[in-house]
Amino acid sequence: MSVTKFRLVFLLQFIAVFVASAQLNTNAFLQEARVDISQNNYFEAIQKLDACIQARPGQYDAYFFRGICKYSLNDNLGALQDLNVAVTVYDPYLSDAYHYRSYVKYRLGDYDGAIRDINQLIAIESGDPKLYLERAFSKLANQDYNGALKDCNKTLSMQWANENLYLCRGMAENALNSYDSALVDYNKAIAINPKNTDAYIRIGITNSAMGNNLQAIQEYNHALKLDSANTLAYFSRAEAYVKLDKQKEAFEDFNTVIKYDPLNALAYFDRAVMEGQKNDYTDALADFDKVLVLNPKNIQALFNRAKLKAALGDIKGALADYNSTIDLFPYFVEAYYERARLKEAMHDIKGAQADYNTGKVMGELSHFKDNNQRASDSATLTHLTALNSNFDSQKQADTVSVALMPLFYLAQNDNSGKAGCFPLVLKRSGKEYSSFCITNKKSEASGNTSDSALYLLNQGLKDSVMDIQSTLQRAIKETNMQLFSDALKDCNDVIERDPESAIAYFERSVSLCKEIDMLSRFSEDEQYTTVNKTYKIAKDPKTEKYDMALTDLNKVLQLEPEFSLAYYNRAFVKYKLKDLNGAINDYTKAVTLDATFADAFYNRGLLFFVQNDKLSACQDYSKAGELGLTKAYEVIKLYCGQVLK
To answer: Distance between CA 551 and CA 563 in Å, rounded?
Structure first.
Protein backbone atom coordinates (compact mmCIF):
# COMPACT_ATOMS: atom_id res chain seq x y z
CA MET A 1 0.00 0.00 0.00
CA SER A 2 1.47 3.31 -0.95
CA VAL A 3 1.70 6.16 1.52
CA THR A 4 0.52 9.71 1.09
CA LYS A 5 2.89 11.80 -0.95
CA PHE A 6 4.67 14.84 0.39
CA ARG A 7 2.98 18.19 0.13
CA LEU A 8 6.16 19.99 -0.69
CA VAL A 9 6.43 23.70 -1.35
CA PHE A 10 8.73 24.44 -4.24
CA LEU A 11 11.18 27.09 -3.04
CA LEU A 12 13.40 28.42 -5.81
CA GLN A 13 16.50 29.99 -4.39
CA PHE A 14 18.25 32.44 -6.67
CA ILE A 15 21.94 31.69 -6.56
CA ALA A 16 24.43 34.30 -7.65
CA VAL A 17 26.85 33.01 -10.23
CA PHE A 18 30.12 34.73 -10.99
CA VAL A 19 31.45 32.70 -13.90
CA ALA A 20 31.78 33.39 -17.59
CA SER A 21 33.08 31.66 -20.64
CA ALA A 22 34.84 32.99 -23.66
CA GLN A 23 32.66 30.81 -25.85
CA LEU A 24 29.39 31.33 -24.02
CA ASN A 25 28.06 33.83 -21.51
CA THR A 26 27.14 31.19 -18.98
CA ASN A 27 26.14 33.79 -16.41
CA ALA A 28 23.43 35.09 -18.75
CA PHE A 29 22.28 31.57 -19.59
CA LEU A 30 22.00 30.69 -15.91
CA GLN A 31 19.99 33.83 -15.22
CA GLU A 32 17.63 32.99 -18.08
CA ALA A 33 17.33 29.40 -16.87
CA ARG A 34 16.39 30.61 -13.38
CA VAL A 35 13.66 32.79 -14.88
CA ASP A 36 12.41 29.80 -16.88
CA ILE A 37 12.28 27.69 -13.69
CA SER A 38 10.34 30.37 -11.83
CA GLN A 39 7.81 30.31 -14.70
CA ASN A 40 7.69 26.48 -14.76
CA ASN A 41 9.36 26.36 -18.18
CA TYR A 42 11.56 23.46 -17.11
CA PHE A 43 12.32 22.08 -20.53
CA GLU A 44 13.55 25.42 -21.82
CA ALA A 45 15.67 25.81 -18.69
CA ILE A 46 17.27 22.40 -19.24
CA GLN A 47 18.42 23.39 -22.72
CA LYS A 48 20.14 26.49 -21.36
CA LEU A 49 21.69 24.62 -18.45
CA ASP A 50 22.96 21.94 -20.84
CA ALA A 51 24.75 24.67 -22.79
CA CYS A 52 26.30 25.97 -19.56
CA ILE A 53 27.51 22.52 -18.53
CA GLN A 54 28.99 21.83 -21.97
CA ALA A 55 30.82 25.15 -21.96
CA ARG A 56 31.94 24.94 -18.32
CA PRO A 57 31.74 21.36 -16.96
CA GLY A 58 32.89 22.60 -13.57
CA GLN A 59 29.90 24.90 -13.17
CA TYR A 60 28.16 22.79 -10.59
CA ASP A 61 25.31 25.19 -9.83
CA ALA A 62 24.07 24.38 -13.34
CA TYR A 63 23.84 20.72 -12.28
CA PHE A 64 21.89 21.77 -9.20
CA PHE A 65 19.34 23.77 -11.20
CA ARG A 66 19.09 21.09 -13.87
CA GLY A 67 18.40 18.56 -11.12
CA ILE A 68 15.51 20.73 -9.92
CA CYS A 69 14.14 20.92 -13.47
CA LYS A 70 14.30 17.16 -13.92
CA TYR A 71 12.69 16.62 -10.52
CA SER A 72 9.85 18.91 -11.57
CA LEU A 73 9.45 16.92 -14.81
CA ASN A 74 9.37 13.65 -12.81
CA ASP A 75 12.68 12.55 -14.31
CA ASN A 76 13.83 11.21 -10.97
CA LEU A 77 16.81 9.21 -12.25
CA GLY A 78 18.12 12.21 -14.17
CA ALA A 79 17.53 14.49 -11.18
CA LEU A 80 19.37 12.09 -8.88
CA GLN A 81 22.38 12.02 -11.19
CA ASP A 82 22.61 15.82 -11.33
CA LEU A 83 22.01 16.33 -7.61
CA ASN A 84 24.69 13.76 -6.80
CA VAL A 85 27.15 16.00 -8.65
CA ALA A 86 25.87 19.07 -6.81
CA VAL A 87 26.08 17.37 -3.40
CA THR A 88 29.56 16.02 -4.07
CA VAL A 89 31.17 19.23 -5.26
CA TYR A 90 29.03 22.30 -4.81
CA ASP A 91 29.53 23.06 -1.12
CA PRO A 92 27.98 26.57 -0.82
CA TYR A 93 24.51 25.20 -1.51
CA LEU A 94 24.95 21.75 -0.05
CA SER A 95 21.81 21.86 2.10
CA ASP A 96 19.55 22.69 -0.86
CA ALA A 97 21.03 19.86 -2.91
CA TYR A 98 20.57 17.40 -0.02
CA HIS A 99 16.99 18.57 0.38
CA TYR A 100 16.01 18.02 -3.22
CA ARG A 101 17.93 14.78 -3.35
CA SER A 102 15.94 13.48 -0.38
CA TYR A 103 12.72 14.23 -2.28
CA VAL A 104 14.02 12.40 -5.36
CA LYS A 105 15.11 9.37 -3.33
CA TYR A 106 11.72 9.26 -1.65
CA ARG A 107 10.02 9.20 -5.04
CA LEU A 108 12.33 6.43 -6.19
CA GLY A 109 11.52 4.33 -3.14
CA ASP A 110 15.02 4.69 -1.68
CA TYR A 111 13.73 5.55 1.76
CA ASP A 112 16.98 4.73 3.55
CA GLY A 113 18.78 7.15 1.24
CA ALA A 114 16.13 9.83 1.78
CA ILE A 115 16.47 9.45 5.55
CA ARG A 116 20.25 9.77 5.35
CA ASP A 117 19.95 13.03 3.40
CA ILE A 118 17.40 14.44 5.82
CA ASN A 119 19.68 13.47 8.71
CA GLN A 120 22.37 15.61 7.08
CA LEU A 121 19.94 18.52 6.95
CA ILE A 122 18.83 18.06 10.56
CA ALA A 123 22.47 18.14 11.63
CA ILE A 124 22.69 21.59 9.98
CA GLU A 125 19.20 22.91 10.80
CA SER A 126 18.05 21.01 13.89
CA GLY A 127 15.47 23.68 14.72
CA ASP A 128 13.39 23.19 11.55
CA PRO A 129 10.25 21.16 12.44
CA LYS A 130 9.40 20.48 8.79
CA LEU A 131 12.52 18.33 8.44
CA TYR A 132 11.31 15.98 11.17
CA LEU A 133 7.97 15.60 9.39
CA GLU A 134 9.71 14.84 6.10
CA ARG A 135 11.81 12.23 7.86
CA ALA A 136 8.67 10.82 9.46
CA PHE A 137 7.12 10.24 6.04
CA SER A 138 10.27 8.48 4.86
CA LYS A 139 10.34 6.30 7.97
CA LEU A 140 6.66 5.54 7.48
CA ALA A 141 7.32 4.40 3.92
CA ASN A 142 10.28 2.37 5.22
CA GLN A 143 7.93 0.60 7.67
CA ASP A 144 9.69 2.13 10.69
CA TYR A 145 6.39 3.04 12.33
CA ASN A 146 7.77 3.76 15.80
CA GLY A 147 10.44 5.99 14.28
CA ALA A 148 7.81 7.85 12.24
CA LEU A 149 5.65 8.34 15.34
CA LYS A 150 8.63 9.66 17.28
CA ASP A 151 9.43 12.22 14.56
CA CYS A 152 5.79 13.34 14.37
CA ASN A 153 5.75 13.90 18.12
CA LYS A 154 9.05 15.79 17.88
CA THR A 155 7.46 18.09 15.32
CA LEU A 156 4.46 18.69 17.60
CA SER A 157 6.76 19.43 20.55
CA MET A 158 8.26 22.25 18.44
CA GLN A 159 4.83 23.91 18.35
CA TRP A 160 4.27 23.28 14.65
CA ALA A 161 1.52 21.23 13.05
CA ASN A 162 -0.47 20.93 9.85
CA GLU A 163 -2.88 18.45 8.29
CA ASN A 164 -0.08 16.29 6.93
CA LEU A 165 1.51 15.92 10.35
CA TYR A 166 -1.72 14.48 11.75
CA LEU A 167 -2.16 12.34 8.65
CA CYS A 168 1.37 10.93 9.01
CA ARG A 169 0.97 10.25 12.72
CA GLY A 170 -2.39 8.60 12.12
CA MET A 171 -0.87 6.28 9.51
CA ALA A 172 1.90 5.28 11.90
CA GLU A 173 -0.64 4.63 14.67
CA ASN A 174 -2.80 2.60 12.31
CA ALA A 175 0.20 0.43 11.37
CA LEU A 176 0.86 -0.11 15.09
CA ASN A 177 -2.81 -1.16 15.58
CA SER A 178 -3.59 1.95 17.64
CA TYR A 179 -6.79 2.44 15.69
CA ASP A 180 -8.60 4.82 18.04
CA SER A 181 -5.60 7.17 18.16
CA ALA A 182 -5.31 7.00 14.38
CA LEU A 183 -8.95 8.02 13.92
CA VAL A 184 -8.47 10.98 16.26
CA ASP A 185 -5.49 12.23 14.23
CA TYR A 186 -7.23 11.74 10.88
CA ASN A 187 -10.16 13.80 12.11
CA LYS A 188 -7.76 16.52 13.24
CA ALA A 189 -6.39 16.59 9.68
CA ILE A 190 -9.94 16.95 8.32
CA ALA A 191 -10.68 19.72 10.82
CA ILE A 192 -7.78 21.67 9.32
CA ASN A 193 -8.76 20.80 5.74
CA PRO A 194 -12.24 19.32 5.18
CA LYS A 195 -11.27 18.48 1.59
CA ASN A 196 -8.32 16.29 2.51
CA THR A 197 -9.15 13.25 0.37
CA ASP A 198 -6.36 11.14 1.83
CA ALA A 199 -7.65 11.60 5.36
CA TYR A 200 -11.06 10.15 4.44
CA ILE A 201 -9.37 7.21 2.71
CA ARG A 202 -7.21 6.56 5.77
CA ILE A 203 -10.25 6.68 8.03
CA GLY A 204 -11.78 4.08 5.75
CA ILE A 205 -8.69 1.86 5.91
CA THR A 206 -8.65 2.04 9.71
CA ASN A 207 -12.36 1.26 9.92
CA SER A 208 -11.84 -1.72 7.64
CA ALA A 209 -9.01 -2.96 9.87
CA MET A 210 -11.44 -2.73 12.81
CA GLY A 211 -14.02 -4.77 10.90
CA ASN A 212 -16.28 -1.79 10.15
CA ASN A 213 -16.33 -2.30 6.37
CA LEU A 214 -19.67 -0.61 5.74
CA GLN A 215 -18.43 2.51 7.50
CA ALA A 216 -15.17 2.22 5.53
CA ILE A 217 -17.09 2.21 2.23
CA GLN A 218 -18.92 5.38 3.24
CA GLU A 219 -15.57 7.07 3.83
CA TYR A 220 -14.25 5.92 0.45
CA ASN A 221 -17.43 7.22 -1.20
CA HIS A 222 -16.83 10.60 0.44
CA ALA A 223 -13.25 10.62 -0.85
CA LEU A 224 -14.44 9.80 -4.38
CA LYS A 225 -16.88 12.70 -4.29
CA LEU A 226 -13.86 14.94 -3.71
CA ASP A 227 -11.69 13.14 -6.28
CA SER A 228 -13.53 10.87 -8.70
CA ALA A 229 -10.29 9.43 -10.14
CA ASN A 230 -8.56 8.51 -6.88
CA THR A 231 -7.22 5.01 -7.50
CA LEU A 232 -6.36 4.40 -3.84
CA ALA A 233 -10.00 5.04 -2.89
CA TYR A 234 -11.24 2.62 -5.55
CA PHE A 235 -8.70 -0.01 -4.55
CA SER A 236 -9.45 0.29 -0.83
CA ARG A 237 -13.19 0.16 -1.48
CA ALA A 238 -12.67 -2.97 -3.57
CA GLU A 239 -10.89 -4.63 -0.65
CA ALA A 240 -13.76 -3.70 1.67
CA TYR A 241 -16.26 -5.16 -0.81
CA VAL A 242 -14.23 -8.38 -0.89
CA LYS A 243 -14.48 -8.64 2.90
CA LEU A 244 -18.25 -8.14 2.62
CA ASP A 245 -18.38 -10.84 -0.10
CA LYS A 246 -19.65 -8.32 -2.64
CA GLN A 247 -17.70 -9.78 -5.52
CA LYS A 248 -19.35 -7.83 -8.33
CA GLU A 249 -18.74 -4.46 -6.72
CA ALA A 250 -15.16 -5.37 -5.83
CA PHE A 251 -14.46 -6.52 -9.36
CA GLU A 252 -15.80 -3.26 -10.81
CA ASP A 253 -13.55 -1.22 -8.53
CA PHE A 254 -10.45 -3.24 -9.41
CA ASN A 255 -11.34 -2.72 -13.08
CA THR A 256 -11.53 1.03 -12.49
CA VAL A 257 -8.11 1.08 -10.86
CA ILE A 258 -6.65 -0.75 -13.85
CA LYS A 259 -8.48 1.54 -16.28
CA TYR A 260 -6.91 4.63 -14.71
CA ASP A 261 -3.57 2.97 -13.98
CA PRO A 262 -2.83 0.09 -16.40
CA LEU A 263 0.51 -0.57 -14.66
CA ASN A 264 -0.95 -1.22 -11.21
CA ALA A 265 0.36 -4.71 -10.45
CA LEU A 266 -1.41 -4.89 -7.09
CA ALA A 267 -4.83 -4.43 -8.68
CA TYR A 268 -4.07 -7.13 -11.27
CA PHE A 269 -2.93 -9.44 -8.46
CA ASP A 270 -6.03 -8.99 -6.33
CA ARG A 271 -8.31 -9.31 -9.34
CA ALA A 272 -6.52 -12.53 -10.29
CA VAL A 273 -7.08 -13.92 -6.80
CA MET A 274 -10.80 -13.17 -7.09
CA GLU A 275 -10.96 -14.82 -10.52
CA GLY A 276 -9.16 -17.88 -9.21
CA GLN A 277 -11.60 -18.19 -6.34
CA LYS A 278 -14.46 -18.16 -8.87
CA ASN A 279 -12.68 -20.87 -10.90
CA ASP A 280 -12.14 -18.42 -13.76
CA TYR A 281 -8.70 -19.89 -14.22
CA THR A 282 -8.03 -18.54 -17.69
CA ASP A 283 -8.77 -14.93 -16.69
CA ALA A 284 -6.82 -15.33 -13.47
CA LEU A 285 -3.86 -16.71 -15.38
CA ALA A 286 -3.93 -13.72 -17.77
CA ASP A 287 -3.89 -11.31 -14.82
CA PHE A 288 -1.00 -13.11 -13.10
CA ASP A 289 0.84 -12.93 -16.44
CA LYS A 290 0.42 -9.14 -16.35
CA VAL A 291 1.65 -9.00 -12.76
CA LEU A 292 4.78 -10.92 -13.72
CA VAL A 293 5.45 -8.70 -16.70
CA LEU A 294 5.43 -5.74 -14.32
CA ASN A 295 7.20 -7.56 -11.48
CA PRO A 296 9.03 -10.60 -12.89
CA LYS A 297 10.44 -11.67 -9.52
CA ASN A 298 7.21 -11.60 -7.55
CA ILE A 299 7.18 -15.02 -5.89
CA GLN A 300 3.52 -14.77 -4.83
CA ALA A 301 2.41 -14.33 -8.42
CA LEU A 302 4.71 -17.12 -9.60
CA PHE A 303 3.42 -19.48 -6.91
CA ASN A 304 -0.23 -18.72 -7.66
CA ARG A 305 0.30 -18.93 -11.39
CA ALA A 306 1.90 -22.34 -10.95
CA LYS A 307 -1.20 -23.58 -9.12
CA LEU A 308 -3.44 -22.25 -11.89
CA LYS A 309 -1.34 -23.85 -14.60
CA ALA A 310 -1.52 -27.17 -12.78
CA ALA A 311 -5.31 -26.84 -12.54
CA LEU A 312 -5.46 -26.16 -16.30
CA GLY A 313 -3.28 -29.19 -17.04
CA ASP A 314 -0.13 -27.24 -17.97
CA ILE A 315 2.17 -29.44 -15.88
CA LYS A 316 5.42 -28.27 -17.47
CA GLY A 317 4.44 -24.63 -17.06
CA ALA A 318 3.48 -25.17 -13.43
CA LEU A 319 6.75 -26.96 -12.72
CA ALA A 320 8.72 -24.10 -14.31
CA ASP A 321 6.94 -21.54 -12.10
CA TYR A 322 7.53 -23.58 -8.92
CA ASN A 323 11.20 -23.88 -9.92
CA SER A 324 11.45 -20.11 -10.41
CA THR A 325 9.76 -19.47 -7.06
CA ILE A 326 12.20 -21.71 -5.21
CA ASP A 327 15.21 -20.32 -7.11
CA LEU A 328 14.25 -16.80 -6.04
CA PHE A 329 13.48 -17.72 -2.42
CA PRO A 330 14.78 -21.15 -1.30
CA TYR A 331 12.97 -20.91 2.05
CA PHE A 332 9.47 -20.93 0.49
CA VAL A 333 8.33 -24.11 2.25
CA GLU A 334 4.88 -24.34 0.66
CA ALA A 335 6.43 -24.18 -2.81
CA TYR A 336 8.39 -27.36 -2.09
CA TYR A 337 5.23 -29.14 -0.93
CA GLU A 338 3.22 -28.01 -3.97
CA ARG A 339 6.02 -29.02 -6.32
CA ALA A 340 6.18 -32.40 -4.57
CA ARG A 341 2.45 -32.93 -5.20
CA LEU A 342 2.96 -32.00 -8.83
CA LYS A 343 5.83 -34.46 -9.16
CA GLU A 344 3.65 -37.16 -7.63
CA ALA A 345 1.08 -36.49 -10.34
CA MET A 346 3.90 -36.87 -12.87
CA HIS A 347 4.85 -40.20 -11.22
CA ASP A 348 8.21 -38.77 -10.17
CA ILE A 349 8.02 -40.36 -6.71
CA LYS A 350 11.72 -39.93 -5.98
CA GLY A 351 11.64 -36.22 -6.88
CA ALA A 352 8.46 -35.70 -4.84
CA GLN A 353 10.01 -37.29 -1.76
CA ALA A 354 13.09 -35.10 -2.14
CA ASP A 355 10.90 -31.98 -2.20
CA TYR A 356 8.91 -33.11 0.86
CA ASN A 357 12.15 -33.66 2.74
CA THR A 358 13.64 -30.32 1.64
CA GLY A 359 10.46 -28.48 2.60
CA LYS A 360 10.56 -30.01 6.05
CA VAL A 361 14.23 -29.10 6.49
CA MET A 362 13.64 -25.50 5.36
CA GLY A 363 10.75 -25.15 7.79
CA GLU A 364 12.84 -26.40 10.69
CA LEU A 365 15.85 -24.34 9.65
CA SER A 366 14.01 -21.06 10.17
CA HIS A 367 13.77 -21.77 13.91
CA PHE A 368 17.56 -21.86 14.28
CA LYS A 369 18.45 -18.68 12.43
CA ASP A 370 19.87 -15.73 14.33
CA ASN A 371 18.32 -12.28 14.21
CA ASN A 372 20.61 -11.06 11.42
CA GLN A 373 19.72 -13.99 9.20
CA ARG A 374 16.02 -13.50 9.84
CA ALA A 375 16.30 -9.78 9.10
CA SER A 376 18.09 -10.58 5.84
CA ASP A 377 15.42 -13.10 4.86
CA SER A 378 12.69 -10.60 5.72
CA ALA A 379 14.30 -7.92 3.55
CA THR A 380 14.63 -10.37 0.65
CA LEU A 381 11.04 -11.52 1.06
CA THR A 382 9.78 -7.95 1.13
CA HIS A 383 11.57 -7.28 -2.15
CA LEU A 384 10.23 -10.46 -3.77
CA THR A 385 6.63 -9.80 -2.75
CA ALA A 386 6.53 -6.07 -3.54
CA LEU A 387 4.10 -5.05 -6.28
CA ASN A 388 4.11 -1.84 -8.31
CA SER A 389 1.18 0.23 -7.09
CA ASN A 390 1.85 3.94 -7.23
CA PHE A 391 -1.63 5.11 -6.33
CA ASP A 392 -2.51 8.63 -7.29
CA SER A 393 -5.51 10.56 -8.55
CA GLN A 394 -4.13 11.17 -12.03
CA LYS A 395 -6.26 9.62 -14.74
CA GLN A 396 -4.26 7.86 -17.40
CA ALA A 397 -5.29 6.61 -20.79
CA ASP A 398 -6.27 2.95 -20.92
CA THR A 399 -3.39 2.32 -23.29
CA VAL A 400 -0.61 4.80 -23.85
CA SER A 401 0.93 4.22 -27.26
CA VAL A 402 4.55 5.18 -27.62
CA ALA A 403 5.75 4.67 -31.17
CA LEU A 404 9.38 4.40 -32.12
CA MET A 405 10.84 7.60 -33.47
CA PRO A 406 10.72 7.19 -37.27
CA LEU A 407 13.45 6.32 -39.74
CA PHE A 408 15.90 8.94 -40.90
CA TYR A 409 15.70 9.52 -44.62
CA LEU A 410 17.23 11.65 -47.36
CA ALA A 411 15.56 14.84 -48.53
CA GLN A 412 16.43 17.70 -50.80
CA ASN A 413 17.99 20.52 -48.82
CA ASP A 414 15.71 23.53 -49.14
CA ASN A 415 18.27 25.74 -47.39
CA SER A 416 15.66 26.68 -44.84
CA GLY A 417 17.99 25.99 -41.97
CA LYS A 418 15.33 24.01 -40.13
CA ALA A 419 16.49 22.11 -37.07
CA GLY A 420 17.05 18.43 -37.69
CA CYS A 421 18.04 18.92 -41.34
CA PHE A 422 21.75 18.92 -42.05
CA PRO A 423 24.00 18.04 -45.02
CA LEU A 424 25.12 14.47 -45.34
CA VAL A 425 28.83 13.68 -45.00
CA LEU A 426 30.26 10.17 -45.34
CA LYS A 427 33.55 9.84 -43.48
CA ARG A 428 35.25 6.85 -45.10
CA SER A 429 34.60 7.86 -48.67
CA GLY A 430 34.97 11.53 -47.89
CA LYS A 431 31.87 12.32 -49.93
CA GLU A 432 29.72 15.29 -48.95
CA TYR A 433 26.18 15.67 -50.27
CA SER A 434 25.59 19.36 -49.65
CA SER A 435 22.38 19.40 -51.68
CA PHE A 436 20.84 16.66 -49.51
CA CYS A 437 19.87 16.65 -45.88
CA ILE A 438 18.88 14.02 -43.35
CA THR A 439 15.58 14.22 -41.54
CA ASN A 440 13.25 11.96 -39.61
CA LYS A 441 10.21 14.18 -39.95
CA LYS A 442 7.43 12.20 -41.54
CA SER A 443 7.18 13.13 -45.19
CA GLU A 444 3.84 13.09 -46.90
CA ALA A 445 3.11 12.72 -50.58
CA SER A 446 3.12 16.10 -52.29
CA GLY A 447 -0.49 15.68 -53.32
CA ASN A 448 0.56 15.45 -56.97
CA THR A 449 1.71 11.92 -57.66
CA SER A 450 0.25 11.86 -61.15
CA ASP A 451 2.07 10.96 -64.34
CA SER A 452 2.40 14.67 -65.12
CA ALA A 453 4.31 15.26 -61.87
CA LEU A 454 6.74 12.47 -62.67
CA TYR A 455 7.03 13.79 -66.23
CA LEU A 456 8.14 17.17 -64.92
CA LEU A 457 10.81 15.46 -62.81
CA ASN A 458 12.04 13.40 -65.73
CA GLN A 459 11.96 16.37 -68.08
CA GLY A 460 14.09 18.39 -65.70
CA LEU A 461 16.63 15.61 -65.63
CA LYS A 462 16.66 15.22 -69.41
CA ASP A 463 17.56 18.88 -69.68
CA SER A 464 20.55 18.34 -67.37
CA VAL A 465 23.51 16.02 -67.31
CA MET A 466 22.28 12.54 -66.46
CA ASP A 467 24.83 11.79 -63.73
CA ILE A 468 24.70 9.66 -60.60
CA GLN A 469 23.88 12.54 -58.29
CA SER A 470 20.90 13.68 -60.37
CA THR A 471 19.57 10.11 -60.55
CA LEU A 472 19.84 9.86 -56.80
CA GLN A 473 18.06 13.20 -56.43
CA ARG A 474 15.21 11.84 -58.51
CA ALA A 475 15.04 8.67 -56.39
CA ILE A 476 14.72 10.79 -53.26
CA LYS A 477 11.88 12.83 -54.76
CA GLU A 478 10.13 9.68 -55.95
CA THR A 479 10.36 8.11 -52.49
CA ASN A 480 8.89 11.21 -50.88
CA MET A 481 6.11 11.22 -53.48
CA GLN A 482 5.44 7.53 -52.65
CA LEU A 483 6.47 6.42 -56.16
CA PHE A 484 8.43 3.56 -54.69
CA SER A 485 8.87 1.38 -57.79
CA ASP A 486 10.41 4.29 -59.66
CA ALA A 487 12.62 5.13 -56.69
CA LEU A 488 13.91 1.55 -56.50
CA LYS A 489 14.70 1.55 -60.23
CA ASP A 490 16.74 4.73 -59.88
CA CYS A 491 18.57 3.43 -56.79
CA ASN A 492 19.37 0.23 -58.68
CA ASP A 493 20.68 2.34 -61.56
CA VAL A 494 23.01 4.26 -59.25
CA ILE A 495 24.25 1.07 -57.58
CA GLU A 496 24.87 -0.58 -60.96
CA ARG A 497 27.04 2.36 -62.01
CA ASP A 498 28.66 2.80 -58.59
CA PRO A 499 28.57 -0.38 -56.44
CA GLU A 500 30.36 1.50 -53.64
CA SER A 501 27.67 4.19 -53.32
CA ALA A 502 26.68 3.85 -49.66
CA ILE A 503 24.11 6.61 -50.00
CA ALA A 504 22.29 4.72 -52.77
CA TYR A 505 21.98 1.62 -50.60
CA PHE A 506 20.79 3.85 -47.76
CA GLU A 507 18.12 5.50 -49.93
CA ARG A 508 16.96 2.15 -51.29
CA SER A 509 16.52 0.78 -47.77
CA VAL A 510 14.48 3.86 -46.81
CA SER A 511 12.29 3.51 -49.88
CA LEU A 512 11.56 -0.14 -49.03
CA CYS A 513 10.62 0.74 -45.45
CA LYS A 514 8.49 3.71 -46.47
CA GLU A 515 6.58 1.49 -48.90
CA ILE A 516 5.80 -0.90 -46.04
CA ASP A 517 4.70 2.04 -43.90
CA MET A 518 2.35 3.30 -46.60
CA LEU A 519 0.82 -0.15 -47.12
CA SER A 520 0.33 -0.54 -43.37
CA ARG A 521 -1.90 2.53 -43.27
CA PHE A 522 -4.38 0.72 -45.48
CA SER A 523 -4.35 -2.57 -43.59
CA GLU A 524 -5.67 -3.66 -40.23
CA ASP A 525 -2.37 -5.01 -38.95
CA GLU A 526 -0.52 -1.72 -38.56
CA GLN A 527 1.86 -2.20 -35.67
CA TYR A 528 2.72 0.21 -32.95
CA THR A 529 4.39 -0.26 -29.62
CA THR A 530 2.68 0.21 -26.29
CA VAL A 531 4.51 0.63 -23.04
CA ASN A 532 1.66 -0.70 -20.93
CA LYS A 533 3.09 -4.22 -21.07
CA THR A 534 0.29 -5.66 -23.16
CA TYR A 535 2.99 -5.49 -25.81
CA LYS A 536 2.92 -8.08 -28.57
CA ILE A 537 4.74 -8.33 -31.87
CA ALA A 538 2.25 -9.58 -34.42
CA LYS A 539 3.30 -11.56 -37.45
CA ASP A 540 4.25 -9.11 -40.17
CA PRO A 541 3.59 -10.28 -43.75
CA LYS A 542 6.05 -7.69 -45.09
CA THR A 543 9.22 -9.25 -43.70
CA GLU A 544 10.62 -9.84 -47.20
CA LYS A 545 10.98 -6.10 -47.83
CA TYR A 546 12.42 -5.59 -44.35
CA ASP A 547 14.95 -8.33 -45.11
CA MET A 548 15.91 -6.47 -48.29
CA ALA A 549 16.25 -3.20 -46.34
CA LEU A 550 18.41 -4.98 -43.76
CA THR A 551 20.71 -6.29 -46.50
CA ASP A 552 21.09 -2.77 -47.89
CA LEU A 553 21.88 -1.29 -44.46
CA ASN A 554 24.43 -4.02 -43.84
CA LYS A 555 26.11 -2.93 -47.07
CA VAL A 556 25.96 0.73 -46.04
CA LEU A 557 27.74 -0.04 -42.76
CA GLN A 558 30.29 -2.19 -44.53
CA LEU A 559 31.12 0.84 -46.68
CA GLU A 560 30.67 3.49 -43.96
CA PRO A 561 31.15 1.88 -40.51
CA GLU A 562 30.84 5.22 -38.67
CA PHE A 563 27.50 6.21 -40.22
CA SER A 564 25.42 6.49 -37.01
CA LEU A 565 22.15 7.09 -38.87
CA ALA A 566 22.56 3.77 -40.69
CA TYR A 567 22.88 1.99 -37.34
CA TYR A 568 19.76 3.80 -36.19
CA ASN A 569 17.79 2.76 -39.27
CA ARG A 570 19.09 -0.79 -39.09
CA ALA A 571 17.95 -0.97 -35.48
CA PHE A 572 14.49 0.12 -36.60
CA VAL A 573 14.42 -2.62 -39.25
CA LYS A 574 15.68 -5.26 -36.82
CA TYR A 575 12.91 -4.30 -34.42
CA LYS A 576 10.38 -4.83 -37.22
CA LEU A 577 11.97 -8.23 -37.83
CA LYS A 578 11.51 -9.05 -34.13
CA ASP A 579 15.24 -9.01 -33.35
CA LEU A 580 15.00 -6.87 -30.22
CA ASN A 581 18.50 -7.62 -28.95
CA GLY A 582 19.96 -6.81 -32.35
CA ALA A 583 17.99 -3.56 -32.45
CA ILE A 584 19.21 -2.56 -28.99
CA ASN A 585 22.80 -3.30 -30.01
CA ASP A 586 22.47 -1.07 -33.08
CA TYR A 587 20.92 1.78 -31.12
CA THR A 588 23.82 1.42 -28.69
CA LYS A 589 26.27 1.68 -31.57
CA ALA A 590 24.45 4.77 -32.83
CA VAL A 591 24.71 6.60 -29.49
CA THR A 592 28.32 5.48 -29.09
CA LEU A 593 29.15 7.18 -32.39
CA ASP A 594 26.96 10.20 -31.58
CA ALA A 595 26.42 10.91 -27.89
CA THR A 596 23.82 13.59 -28.76
CA PHE A 597 21.55 11.23 -30.72
CA ALA A 598 18.32 11.81 -28.76
CA ASP A 599 16.09 9.70 -31.01
CA ALA A 600 18.36 6.68 -30.63
CA PHE A 601 18.33 6.99 -26.82
CA TYR A 602 14.54 7.27 -26.91
CA ASN A 603 14.03 4.22 -29.13
CA ARG A 604 16.51 2.14 -27.17
CA GLY A 605 14.65 3.10 -24.01
CA LEU A 606 11.42 1.84 -25.51
CA LEU A 607 12.96 -1.52 -26.35
CA PHE A 608 14.54 -1.78 -22.90
CA PHE A 609 11.05 -1.24 -21.48
CA VAL A 610 9.68 -4.01 -23.70
CA GLN A 611 12.34 -6.29 -22.23
CA ASN A 612 11.31 -5.15 -18.74
CA ASP A 613 14.66 -3.45 -18.06
CA LYS A 614 12.96 -0.42 -16.55
CA LEU A 615 16.10 1.12 -15.10
CA SER A 616 17.92 1.20 -18.44
CA ALA A 617 14.74 2.36 -20.18
CA CYS A 618 14.18 5.30 -17.87
CA GLN A 619 17.84 6.29 -17.98
CA ASP A 620 17.60 6.43 -21.77
CA TYR A 621 14.38 8.47 -21.65
CA SER A 622 16.10 10.85 -19.25
CA LYS A 623 19.02 11.28 -21.64
CA ALA A 624 16.69 11.77 -24.62
CA GLY A 625 14.79 14.48 -22.74
CA GLU A 626 18.00 16.16 -21.67
CA LEU A 627 19.09 16.22 -25.32
CA GLY A 628 15.93 18.01 -26.41
CA LEU A 629 13.31 15.34 -27.11
CA THR A 630 10.38 16.69 -25.10
CA LYS A 631 8.11 13.67 -25.59
CA ALA A 632 10.54 11.62 -23.47
CA TYR A 633 9.27 13.47 -20.38
CA GLU A 634 5.71 12.35 -21.11
CA VAL A 635 6.85 8.72 -20.89
CA ILE A 636 8.97 9.43 -17.81
CA LYS A 637 5.99 10.95 -16.02
CA LEU A 638 3.85 7.87 -16.66
CA TYR A 639 6.30 5.03 -16.23
CA CYS A 640 9.43 6.05 -14.37
CA GLY A 641 8.03 7.02 -10.98
CA GLN A 642 9.84 4.44 -8.86
CA VAL A 643 12.81 2.89 -10.62
CA LEU A 644 15.68 2.04 -8.31
CA LYS A 645 19.32 1.62 -9.29
So the answer is: 16
